Amino acid sequence: MVNIVLAEDHHLVRQGVRSLLEGEPTFCVVGEVDDGLDVLDTVERLTPDILITDLALPGLNGLEITKQVSQRFPLQRVIILSMHANEAYVTQAFANGAYGYVLKDSTITDLVEAIKTVCQGERYLSPPLAARGMDAYLEEAGSSSTDPYEKLTPRERQILQLVAEGHTSASIASRLSISSRTVEVHRANVMRKLNLHSQAELIRYAIWKGVVQSSGDIQA
Questions:
Q1: What is the three-class DSSP state of 48?
Q2: How many CA atoms lie less than 13 Å away from 110 in the CB half-sphere?
Q3: CA–CA gap between residue 43 and residue 76 (Å, rounded)
Q4: Entry pTM
Q5: Is 28 helix (H, G, I), strand (E, B) or coil?
Q6: What does the alpha-carbon distance between residue 75 and residue 86 come to, in Å, rounded to a whole number?
Q7: Which of 142, 160, 178 represents a domain boundary (last residue)?
Q8: What burial class does residue 197 get, using C-beta atoms within 10 Å of its C-beta: 0-12 exposed, 13-18 middle, 19+ buried?
Q9: pLDDT tens track for 105-134
Q10: DSSP per residue over 84-149, as a string?
Q11: Mind listing the pLDDT tens digit for each residue in 194-213?
Q12: Could you tell me if 13 and 101 lie in one domain?
């Protein structure tokens, strides 16, 4: 039996994927999450074989979730399920440790195949993306990067996303169970490391980096 956790903030999408997956006799959806900040605790508690996560989750995005799950729980494998066919997202997903990347307009057959492939220790790409070839993505993902974003700690990345989403220091402190002063220290570190000088610059950076979506985008 393959145990699966779904991380998706759109209820109808999440329920639809769950219903489709539970039609497979060897799949069992053991948990669902709609907030990125709850994913790591859920994975630790339920120890699924597979985490299927959206990219654009509130609180903590799918790319950062993938990175932290891969580092903290190496036996659990991550499949990204997203509407974004952008090669930059795919490359970053594999750089962060994802084993599969499936587009939301794929068929259930594609998703089932992705899960089975990943369970065998192999990587999977949706057919439209696979035309470029897995080796090309992995080579690019493995190349050295001087991106200052990589210098941020996991907590600083959380703060960056939550600030960009419009949360106040008090609200962030409450969500993360830390003090407002600690939030401000982390925020200052983020600004310094990324050479940002205003809230507007921080938001623009977060959108450019894919940490959050712009107000005109449909959430993935």
A1: coil
A2: 18
A3: 8
A4: 0.83
A5: strand
A6: 27
A7: 142
A8: exposed
A9: 999 999 999 999 999 999 999 887 775 666
A10: ---HHHHHHHHHTT-SEEEETTS-HHHHHHHHHHHHTT--EE-HHHHTT-HHHHHHHHHS----GG
A11: 999 999 999 999 998 889 87
A12: yes
| Burial class of residue 28 (count of CB atoms within 10 Å of its CB; 0-12, 13-18, 19+) | middle
What's the rounded mean pLDDT across residues 175-191?
A: 95
In the 8-state DSSP scheme, what is residue 219? P
pLDDT digits (tens, 9 = 90+) for 46-78: 999 999 999 989 999 999 999 999 999 999 999
Count how many domains the chain has. 2
Q: Which of 36, 40, 48, 2 is nearest to 21 (CA)?
A: 2
Provide CB contacts within 8 A for 160, sequence distance 6+.
152, 190, 202, 206, 211
Clarify whether residues 156 and 136 are in a common domain: no
Q: Which helix (H) or strand (E) holds 80?
A: strand 77-82
CB-based burial, 70-80: b 16+ in 10 Å, e otherwise: beebeebbbbb
Question: DSSP letter at 25?
Answer: T
First to last CA, the chain: 29
